[in-house]
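re: ur question from yesterday

yeah so i grabbed the chain u mentioned. its 452 aa long if i counted rite. heres the sequnce exactly as i have it in my notes:
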Amino acid sequence: MTILGFLLLIILFLSFFIYCSWLNPEDITLIYWTGKSITFSPALLILGFVLVGLCIGYGAHIYSVLVHGVKHWRRERSEKKTREISAIYREGVGRLLSGDLKKARVLLQKTLERDPKSIDSLIALASVQLQDGEGSEAVKLLLKARDIDGKNLEVLFKLATTYQKLDQTDEAIEAYQAILALESDNRKALRSLRDLHIAAGNWQEAYDLQKRVIKVAQKSKRLADEKKLLANLRYEVARLLLENGEADKALGEFQDLVKNAPELVPARVSLGDAQKAVGRGDDAVRTWQEGYQKLGRSIFLSRLEDYYMETEDPAGLLTFYRDATSRKPDDMLLRLFFGKFCLRLEMVEEAIDQLYMVESSGIESTQLNFLLGEAYRRRDRIEDAVEEYKRALGTNKHLRLGFVCDHCGKSYQEWQSRCDECGNWGGLSLINRQLFHEARPIEVREIHHGER
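ran it thru and got these structure tokens back, copy pasting raw so excuse formatting
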């Protein structure tokens, strides 16, 4: 306010006082105690009230200014402290990312000394401890962060993954369940918890979680893969039913799986196993035969061979092989197994015929070398047998050829539905099976005089 304005205000106030005095010439007597009183004019009373009001207002203004100043000072001090802590924290994280764990530890501990409730610092220091091999210390820091903010998803995820790295599966499961208690449709938590159950072989739990994943991933680009995984997990649940003697229940599950996921090799294999378990051997044979015709996987031929040998009916499988090779003479995989079966039955000449036809297609395979070596040995063609054995990898009682995972390359002596190494279902195939599928027999024709 300017001086001129202040003077104008005083003149207006005095004019008001004179005007009130002129209108109210009488005095007012105010008794404030027994026998005690004071007499003054109404204008003076009004003046007193106005002055008191001005003093109160001014005092309130002064108080407001002081409070605002204190708050501003505190805020600036807090912001300065926050900036300093943030700078130290960023430097500590930078050291962590560059691999300087010692310096990172010092800086992050310094931030916690200045702000013990810093969630970010606790998480970063836990990462330092984990990389430094102090897993239990990392867990303690993360548990402290969880106590500060139990609904912080970053803390819960970090705690869960830390438990996983420490192979504390039960604790990791509890951490993911805590996340799902806060967000029931959190895809990352659902998938991580599902993967933990898969690794632990808890197929029913993994299957239930996968159904929830699909429910929340309807518009995801990964939906097709998620549905494929659901079928695989359903297969594992049904397989457990079969292993536990509940063949009737398993049979229905396998039938539905084959209908909805016709390319799932393990489902067709186990459908035949379930049919066999309930006494429907002929149905099992048809299932495995159809499985080979549609999918071309050697496990179906192995199942057929085992079944016919168990039932002491090798003639039935011989009939199948002869009919199948007459219909598909270019199927070298079929001829390989045909020759192997003949060799197992000591039908050596027919075995050599089939195996030689496979060899004539240009296939170079250790399994083929092994079978030819056995055939030549049983016909006392020792030199030929030795040459083939040199190319082969070994021998076994039932002339099993072994399997390899199409995805990761791990070898197995016996077929199984899922690869232990990479976790993919239905990927086990005969080694070099693609060679047999792609090969065609060489056309035999007369060589004319003078032609090489």
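noticed a couple things. Residues 18 and 43 are 8 Å apart (CA to CA). also Residues 20-59 form one domain.
anyway ttyl
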